[in-house]
Design brief:
The complex is a heterotetramer, with two copies of chain A and two copies of chain B. By secondary structure, chain A is an alpha+beta fold. Chain A is built from four helices and five strands; from the N terminus they run βααββααββ. In chain B, helix 1 packs parallel to helix 2. The chains are: A alpha+beta, B alpha/beta. Bound molecules: adenosine-5'-diphosphate (2 copies). One adenosine-5'-diphosphate (ADP) sits at the interface of chains A and C. Chains A, C: This is Anti-sigma regulatory factor. Chains A, C: One of its GO terms (molecular function) is protein serine/threonine kinase activity.
Chain lengths: ~150, ~140, ~150, ~140
């Protein structure tokens, strides 16, 4: 059973809340101080990705974040995006840049697919223990990350 | 911390100084500001559109992939218009994000605003922000 | 559907996380600044009460907090304590003090029943719109509180 | 902010100065400290147990019912031993918590440490913390 579980409607403002909670829980769980920046960024990326997918596919469900203590501090972020959004082939950010839309498009932030790809690339480079899998219940994907506890 | 954006000049070049967190929540604001600087109408005493821009990230506390996406959008737009974009950043934890994504190979990143001007001399700066005084404002 | 939902294992440390989240979400929802202290204290009390009840009755389930936006900002805290813990007769803190155990008892904090009663008394005095009811599913109680949005 | 506890003296009286949040998470620490002051062994050069205590809440940022419970426990214990407890607090938001619960009728609450000594003269302070110098330490 997770120690802390956070669900939030898929809006960018709540991603900050998720980051704040993840860092507070990680610190209390005993994750070393020097890894907390990584936890903040990684959990933020996984949540931004989930928000972007929910917005892209018009899913109103809450994005679900589970944090579990020891032996490692483990965070799982579940989205309800379709299975195609699985990271079968990890995107190359430089490639994504080449294909990204222009800054003048009217969208509130860069095309969601590009953001999702860029976020995954960043996550992959950042977190040693990272796994992106289809959700157990067949809807959406799960990003699982873990960090050592001192 | 929310995002705060200030424009200034360094050696006649327009600088956008960013303070706070550039994330999925605040990136739209940065995007809007970049658009306004690059696309603003020329004439009626309004400052001309910026073609050679420096973005100073020295006081950025957090940057995520959405923020990277906006910076990339700005770079592409400026290049398409024959302009340049230089980023100022000396913070290891922000630089790391460019390195991890390989975007440090795409952006010109320098440690100080002064170095930004040297990095992209922009000799052909005829479309530059000429309303700005040639001296720096700091 | 709530905007943000937080579940946490019944440990005192997580009550701080709940307070932090409630204030962040309330602020973004538009609750006036001068009410945020009240939100912080009230959500903390409701969560401390739930933690105390879970500890008293050895319930391992997560304490569940739901936050919903407008027309008022509404927070619901669900515990799994038995129905007797309902606030049928609201306790009087001064009475509770008279009956509270001595400081020398070895317990980590004052007898849970006293803490629960004191917390409820504080909540009642603090929050204008407060309701304590049996949970819809028959297990435990729900504390519902709401505040205006500017 | 976590809890921080410092003991000092004001006019020979022991003062426990509390900084930070007294909540369900930190209240056990406050409880332990109160117990240690009130119950500590007398002799072998150790300071005698405190009977007339001032708790300074001026720097408390948050107080919940669990914290109230610990303060009440301390008051009852001291009274049972023939001692006194005075709380120092001038912050409206903390005072409000005592008012709402009616506990302002049970505690002696004064705005400054100096006023605390006047409030409970404790003429019979023969069991007081005599290891402390008579002058205040601030
Ligand atoms: N990264 C974050 N994640 C979640 N909540 C945050 C974060 N940063 C700040 N907050 C919360 O948002 C609220 C406002 O933050 P603040 O930095 O003061 O900016 P502002 O007041 O402009 O919204 C605070 O209550 C704080 O707890
Ligand atoms: N009231 C609170 N609720 C939830 N988390 C909190 C609260 N206060 C602080 N935190 C979190 O706990 C962490 C540590 O808080 P801090 O005040 O620095 O004390 P410490 O470092 O001693 O634990 C921070 O990451 C902060 O986000």
């Amino acid at each position: 059973m997770p120690t802390v579980r956070l669900g939030f409607s898929p809006a960018p403002a709540h991603v900050r809340t998720a980051r704040l909670v993840a860092v507070a829980v990680a610190r209390r769980a005993g994750v070393p101080e020097e890894l907390l920046d990584e936890v903040r960024l990684a959990v933020g990326e996984a949540c931004s990705r989930a928000v972007a997918l929910h917005q892209l596919y018009h899913r109103k469900e809450l994005v679900d974040v589970e944090m579990t203590d020891g032996p490692r501090f483990t965070v799982r972020v579940h989205d309800r995006g379709p299975a195609e959004s699985r990271a079968d082939a990890l995107p190359d950010p430089v490639e994504l840049v080449a294909h990204s839309e222009d800054i003048v498009t009217a969208e509130p932030f860069p095309a969601a697919t590009v953001a999702v790809g860029m976020g995954l690339a960043l996550l992959t480079g950042l977190v040693d223990d990272l796994e992106v899998t289809p959700s157990p219940d067949g809807t959406g994907t799960s990003v699982r990350m873990s960090w050592p506890i001192a | 911390m929310e995002l705060s954006l200030q424009t200034g000049t360094v050696a006649g070049r327009t600088v956008l100084r960013v303070t706070g967190e550039i994330d999925v929540y605040t990136a739209p604001e940065l995007r809007q500001r970049l658009l306004a600087l690059i696309e603003r109408g020329d004439g009626d005493g309004a400052p001309p559109p910026v073609r050679h821009l420096v973005i100073d990230l020295s006081k950025v506390e957090f940057l995520d992939s959405t923020g990277l996406g906006v910076l990339v959008g700005g770079l592409k737009r400026l290049r398409a218009l024959g302009g340049t974009l230089v980023l100022v950043c000396a913070q290891a934890r922000i630089l790391k994000i460019f390195q991890i994504t390989g975007l440090d190979g795409i952006f010109t990143i320098v440690p100080t605003e002064e170095a930004a001007v040297a990095a992209e001399p922009a000799a052909e700066d005829s479309t530059g922000d000429q309303s700005a005084p040639p001296a720096t404002d700091r």
